Amino acid sequence: MKTFLLTLAALLLSSQVIPDSTEDCWNLHGNCRDRCHKNEKVYVLCLSGKLCCVKPKYQPHGLPKLTKG
């Protein structure tokens, strides 16, 4: 029982120490952060208000063209 409680306490503490949230965005290809890394771009904001940082591999290549209907 002591081992279980010790393990549980360690897991709870480690979740508080790890930097950056694990909140995902951009169809799970982006990460929510306060600041993006050098090669990442922001297209939307996360629900938490942080930036949704998207790596170049998953960035859109162009904006869709609008046609008159």
From TrEMBL:
One GO-annotated biological process of the protein: defense response to bacterium
Signal peptide: 1-19
Cell compartment(s), UniProt: Secreted
Any single Gene Ontology cellular-component annotation: extracellular region
The Beta-defensin domain, residue ranges: 25-53
Lineage top rank: taxon: Eukaryota
Short name of one Pfam family: Defensin_beta_2
This protein's UniProt keywords: Antibiotic, Antimicrobial, Defensin, Disulfide bond, Secreted, Signal
Similarity comment: Belongs to the beta-defensin family.
Role played: Has antibacterial activity.
Protein name as catalogued: Beta-defensin
Taxonomic placement: Eukaryota, Metazoa, Chordata, Craniata, Vertebrata
